[in-house]
Design goal:
About 35% of the residues are buried. The strands form four sheets. Strands 1, 2, 4, 5, 6 and 7 form a six-stranded antiparallel β-sheet that branches. The chain contains 22 helices and 18 strands. Strand 17, helix 17 and strand 18 form a beta-alpha-beta unit. The chain starts with a helix and ends with a helix. It is an alpha/beta fold.
Length: about 550
């Protein structure tokens, strides 16, 4: 079932020192949740899953957790019905419902070379290469063919989930279970921070990561002995007064050392801490270097920013950035996390497609810019399909009203986002737009020299999905001057009141945001967009 030894040595021989903390190389999914076919490669150390709602971030972490756990009970708890792709099921039930066409579901985790023949073979979808890995396979059971056929003949649509097998196989074809795991991993979900089962599993895994087998056996033996002593020395006084029925202490697998353990901070159980503090403690503890040579290999973090203040968020980012001994795969909606941890480690997911995009091609200086930028709209930008970039508050305040006047519909109904980034930051965002094919209109001032500032300055960004719009009259060097020239009567009316001493155009230049806000509140229906802004709106909405 596995590769011949000679072939394995030829194809799979590790290069240099093996580092077990660099484990998951790739994930492939077939009919799993929203994905019919999906494949994503992972960085050895840090991976940031970024996407809009329903893009599949949680599904990826869940698939990794299920496959690495080898736990049938986890699949049963979630239910096969919730895990299989709903569209493929609907299409099957609407078709011929042939027994041989029943869909299967699988998830494959490809590993870096582990020097373990039990993991190595061709039992995976690629089939031809010697690879190390694990696979979850859910398929109809042949022995129940007659029962499945009867269900499919029913008049009402009825899918035979109950007649599917759940198998965990290594790429060598060997079965494995939760009792025979090939790596240590932990899924930490910030949204489930108060879930009792999730907390118990977390404590159990952290205990196992910080104790070796000899210590664990000793701990369990001592714990069982103390339970027995409690029964003999304490409960015996009570039981002596009873007749047929006695009190005892549970000693089964559901009541043992690992199930009874808890984690405390300052002698207070973390379960009694607030949600934000629980999130922080659990993440910090999981990120710490193991106290033994038995560390977590892979840490899966689902929205670690949940319940955290901005200060604690910064601390968390610092901890994640300094993590050692483990591979991190983080799903997040937070701009601070995705920028401070290096955009080049980001994996972009979109709810309308099944192909991830990576940002490993982002220039180093651009990635560095977003790490240091005080405030940025990076997440909003990379999750958008169409963007208008403006360089000031005044343009941002008025753009929605100008867009509706020109395009005839609401800005956000057309899936267009306006983002104010500052003139010096345009190119940083355009580096991302080039990689992600985001249709981007830049609206900027010519600052008195349109040829130099708007044409030559952006010559490297002349692409079908990127266009820079500007006023070609150098005398109209700013947005405020352009707006005044197109709307003199309106501006004179608004900015010649008794307390305003400056001429209207000068007032607009010296009070950009305040002037724009007054125009929006009082005269938005009468405003006329300058020609270059009209062109930008027509282009982006086309």
């Amino acid at each position: 079932m596995g590769c011949p030894i000679a072939a394995r040595e030829l194809v799979c021989k590790p290069q240099g020192e093996k580092k077990l903390n660099k484990i998951v190389a790739k994930l492939k999914l077939h009919n799993f949740r929203r994905f019919r076919e999906f494949s994503v490669d992972f960085n050895d150390e840090m991976n940031l899953l970024i996407g809009d709602n329903e893009s599949g971030k949680s599904s990826i972490l869940q698939a990794l957790d299920l496959v690495m756990s080898g736990s049938r009970s986890k699949v049963d708890t979630l239910s096969l019905e919730s895990l299989m792709n709903i569209d493929i099921i609907s299409e099957y039930l609407a078709g011929t419902k042939a027994l041989e066409d029943l869909p299967v579901m699988w998830a494959e985790v490809y590993l870096n070379e582990q020097n373990n023949p039990d993991l190595n073979g061709k039992n995976h979808s690629e089939g031809i290469d010697c690879r190390d890995g694990l696979k979850l396979l859910c398929e109809p059971m042949d022995e129940y063919g007659n029962e499945i056929a009867d269900i499919l003949k029913e008049a009402e649509p009825n899918f035979p989930f109950e007649y599917y097998s759940i198998k965990f196989k290594t790429f060598s074809g060997e079965s494995y279970t939760g009792y025979r795991r090939f790596m240590k991993h932990l899924l930490l979900d910030g949204s489930q921070i108060n879930n009792e089962y999730a907390t118990r599993e977390y404590v159990k895994k952290m205990y196992r990561a910080n104790v070796d087998d000899r210590e664990k056996n000793k701990h369990q033996n001592e714990y069982r002995k103390h339970k027995s002593q409690f029964w003999n020395n304490v409960l015996s006084h009570l039981n002596d007064r009873l007749n047929s029925y006695k009190f005892s202490v549970a000693t089964n697998t559901k009541s043992n050392l690992e199930t009874d353990l808890m984690i405390t901070e300052d002698d207070i159980s973390i379960e009694n801490k607030g949600k934000g503090r629980q999130c922080f403690i659990k993440t910090e503890f999981a990120l710490q270097r193991s106290s033994t040579g038995n560390p977590l290999n892979v840490l899966l973090l689902e929205e670690p920013e949940n319940h955290l203040s901005h200060t604690n968020m910064k601390k968390l980012v610092s901890m994640i950035a300094g993590a050692v001994d483990k591979q991190l795969i983080v799903a997040t909606h937070n701009s601070l996390i995705c920028t401070r941890l290096d955009l080049r480690k980001a994996i972009m997911l979109n709810s309308s497609g099944d192909k991830p995009a990576t940002l490993d091609g982002v220039p180093k200086d651009t990635a560095g810019f977003f790490v240091k930028a005080p405030d940025n709209n990076i997440l909003e930008f990379i999750l958008s399909k169409k963007v208008i970039l403006v360089e000031g508050d005044a343009e941002y305040i008025l753009m929605e009203a100008l867009y509706e006047k020109v395009a005839g519909n609401e800005l956000y109904s057309a899936d267009v986002h306006v983002i104010s980034v500052g003139g010096t930051s345009f190119k940083r965002y355009l580096d991302l737009a080039k990689l992600l094919n985001i249709k981007t209109a830049v609206i900027r001032d010519n600052d008195g020299n349109y040829q130099k500032n708007c044409v030559e300055n952006y010559k490297d960004y002349s692409l079908d999905d990127i266009k820079v719009f500007f006023e070609s009259d150098n005398k109209l060097k700013t947005f405020e001057i352009c707006m005044y020239e197109k709307n003199k009567a309106v501006c004179d009316d608004q900015f010649t009141t008794g307390h305003i001493k400056l001429p209207p155009q000068d007032y607009m230049l010296n009070n950009k945001a305040e002037a724009a806000l007054r125009l929006l509140e009082n005269k938005s229906a009468e405003l006329i967009a300058p020609e270059y802004i009209r062109n930008a709106i027509k282009w982006i909405s086309g």
